[in-house]
Design brief:
Elements: H1 2-17, H2 27-56, H3 59-83, H4 85-92, E1 98-100, E2 105-107, H5 112-119, H6 128-151, H7 156-174, H8 186-201, H9 208-222, H10 232-253, H11 293-303, H12 315-318, H13 366-375, H14 384-391, H15 395-404, H16 414-426, H17 434-440, H18 448-458, E3 485-487, E4 519-521, H19 543-552, H20 554-557, H21 576-587
Antiparallel strand pairs: 1-2, 3-4
Helix pairs in contact: 1-2, 2-3, 2-6, 2-7, 3-4, 3-5, 3-7, 3-8, 4-6, 5-6, 7-8, 7-10, 8-9, 9-10, 11-15, 11-16, 13-16, 14-16, 18-21
Pfam family, one: CCP_MauG
Protein name: Cytochrome-c peroxidase
GO molecular function, one term: peroxidase activity
């Protein structure tokens, strides 16, 4: 059946693409035909196996059809994620409601992960009708995906980039189990996704080294004994990184110009872990806000200067460089002596590589965060308008602003103050830890215990399903188009005999949606060894306390009532030795600046 469908697609597409019967197809056109064939196979399996057996089959038969559907989806994932991300999220997104804060709307999840929840850990007969509806919805979504695929004009540069991004996706989401939380089949599914990459790249010609790397990577993942014991570090350093580097180099040899469209990952980055692989400008609010050396230098001068507040307070008072731009306090000191602000001061390292600021995500850009902090009565109790007025009285600053903003009119405007400070914060992305050097160099920079900790972090402990590489925050590669929040159930005092939920309502404070009650942004774990105490309330004094909290399954795992908790409540069952290994790994994320 698959061969027949492919032959039909080939004939149809040849008629569409070719002006004459002998006109050759480009690699990207061949890739489109191939993906159309694979999508036909997915639709066939979803309809004739998953839906049919969901209607009449036994638990075992439905599960088998489900896994065949997932494998078929992985054959087209590089297309859906790259060209149809909205549909892709519905096909295989997280089984959590999609929240549109601005519209105060909640969309119920759908797709393979929702179906997975109906089949594991057990299938309940009373849920069969719901399962049937989810299977029908999935089938309908594949139809939408096919419509998009048929109407999309492929180019060689886009296809090569889609293949490279699929490998990045496998590194960050596939082998972490992000989209297979209950079945733990993510590693084996990575073999299928890699096979799809291999098949598509073959249309560009014979690159023996690349094909050999892919074949070895496929064998390595397919033969994995178990999800928990898979050596993710070896897979990334020995296979995944060399594969993406080879794709990047081969693109140059093929004389395929790199994409000029603004993506989060540089089009010419060899690996996800290159020092300059991420573009901070991608996260800037506008072209005018993009950083330059002059803006960064000016922003740094303002960051440590009380001229911004008009009093003795500075940004650097709560964000000290020696403490990874935190202050070492549970909650930062307020202007009024003896008082404190509502929350812990987060690190500013890598703050520019996300789409939301503050723990409650109330600011969408660093510029708007700047305004909020400066005017906050407990922090600076000033305004950017007054700051601009004071700066206009100082000749040196006027000159510096004109150099940073050549199009600036006679006076410094409030927006220039905001953008200068934001540019400095965006520059705080050193990517200079031992972990980074280990991922980039052929030399070993991590110990055996630290490597074990990384594998646990990305596997059994499930840390990597919320703290996404390479930034280890809530913004997932390779698209980097959304910053996530989680409901964990942080307690006021983890050392109390009977811990109670912290009363801080998080995102619910500004957006009255029940799903956001106690929701907080997922921060970066980079430099976490320097940023104690932890969590938004600073109540966790050590990394050991944080690990104990997660190991128990958050608030629900501790027996507290929290219906909207997004952290799985099941215990991780980490041993003391495993916890120590994870903490050892976290120490390797400290930048040496």
């Amino acid at each position: 059946m698959k061969k027949l469908l492919f032959a039909f697609s080939l004939l149809l597409s040849t008629a569409i693409y070719c002006c004459t019967p002998d006109a050759p197809l480009s690699p990207s056109e061949k890739a489109k035909l191939h993906l159309l064939s694979e999508l036909d196979t997915l639709q066939h399996i979803a309809e004739n196996e998953l839906l049919r057996l969901a209607t009449t089959g036994s638990e075992d038969s439905i599960r088998l059809a489900f896994h065949r559907t997932r494998q078929a989806y992985k054959q087209v994932e590089l297309f859906t994620e790259y060209y149809a991300p909205t549909v892709s999220k519905e096909l295989n997104g997280a089984p959590l409601p999609e929240i549109e804060v601005e519209e105060t709307t909640v969309f119920e999840p759908s797709g393979l992960q929702v179906i997975e929840e109906h089949l594991y850990p057990s299938f309940e007969e009373q849920n069969r009708e719901v399962l049937i509806q989810e299977a029908k919805k999935f089938l309908s979504l594949t139809g939408r995906a096919r419509t998009i695929l048929e109407g999309t004009e492929f180019t060689d540069a886009h296809i090569l980039n889609a293949c490279r991004q699929e490998v990045f996706r496998i590194i960050v989401l596939g082998i972490s189990g992000f989209d297979t939380p209950l079945t733990a089949t993510g590693v084996k599914e990575a073999a299928t996704a890699l096979q799809s990459v291999q098949e598509v790249l073959a249309f560009f010609g014979n690159n023996e080294q690349l094909q050999t790397l892919l074949q070895k990577a496929i064998a390595y993942t397919a033969q994995s004994a178990s999800f928990d014991h898979f050596d993710r570090m070896a897979f990334i350093t020995q296979f995944a990184n060399p594969i993406t580097a080879e794709i990047t180099g081969w693109q140059k040899q093929l004389n395929v110009a790199p994409l000029t469209m603004p993506l989060a990952i540089h089009a010419e980055a060899a690996t996800l872990f290159d020092k300059n692989s991420l573009r901070a400008d991608y996260f800037a609010g506008s072209a005018e806000a993009m950083a330059t050396p002059e803006k960064i230098a000016l922003g740094k001068a303002l960051f440590f200067n009380p001229v911004v507040s008009g009093n003795s307070s500075t940004c650097g008072a709560c964000h000290k460089p020696e403490l990874a731009f935190t202050d070492g306090l549970p909650k930062s000191a307020a202007i009024e002596k003896g008082k404190f602000v509502q929350r812990n001061a987060p690190t500013l390292y890598y703050a520019g590589l996300q789409h939301a600021q503050f723990y409650d995500m109330r600011a969408s850009t660093l510029e708007s965060q700047t305004v909020d902090v400066i005017r906050n009565k407990d922090e600076m109790h000033a305004s950017v308008e007054d700051a601009a007025h004071r700066l206009n009285a100082e000749a040196d600053f006027i000159l510096a602003f004109k150099q940073a903003f050549p199009g600036m009119e006679a006076e410094i405007q409030p927006k220039h103050v905001m953008m200068a400070l934001a540019s400095y914060v965006r520059s705080l992305t050193p990517f200079n830890s031992r972990f980074d050097r280990h991922m980039r160099d052929k030399e070993q920079h991590l110990t055996a215990q630290e490597t074990k900790g990384f594998n646990l972090f990305m596997g059994k402990a499930k840390c990597g399903t919320c703290h996404f590489m390479p930034v280890f925050n809530g913004t997932a590669a390779p698209a980097f188009n959304n910053t996530e929040a989680e409901v964990l159930g942080i307690v006021e005092n983890p050392r109390a005999a009977h811990p109670m939920l912290d009363p801080d309502l998080g995102r619910f404070t500004h957006n009255k949606m029940e799903e956001l009650r106690f929701a907080f942004k997922t921060p970066t774990l980079r430099n976490v060894a320097k940023t104690a105490p932890y969590m938004h309330n600073g109540s966790y004094q050590t990394l050991e306390e944080v690990m104990d909290f997660y190991n128990k399954g958050g608030a629900q795992g501790m027996g507290l009532q929290l219906e909207n908790q997004t952290l799985p409540p099941d215990p991780l069952n980490l041993t003391e030795e495993e916890t120590k290994s994870i903490i050892s790994f976290l120490h390797t994320l400290t930048d040496e600046v």
